[in-house]
Amino acid sequence: MTDRHLRILRLMAQQRQLELRNYDADHNGDAVSPDHRSPDHRQHLERAATRTSARVADAQARRRRRKKSLLTATRRQHSGSRVLPEG
Hints:
The protein is built from 2 helices and no strands. It is mainly α. The protein has one domain (3-80).
């Protein structure tokens, strides 16, 4: 996972959260009649926000695991090829 991919995922997650906040702000006021409120639409926005946030967390975890495994493999390669000084 590249930095660019993570930035795109984070941006998507932020947009979903913003859509949910805007929906809540627009539909929680007294000016909007109950007929125009859609619990199904809000649930859809909430699920989308949760899903994209989970994707970001999953991508970051995969990236950390990959970096850790690459670092461990590099250390193993270098530790096997070291020549200890005599004396």
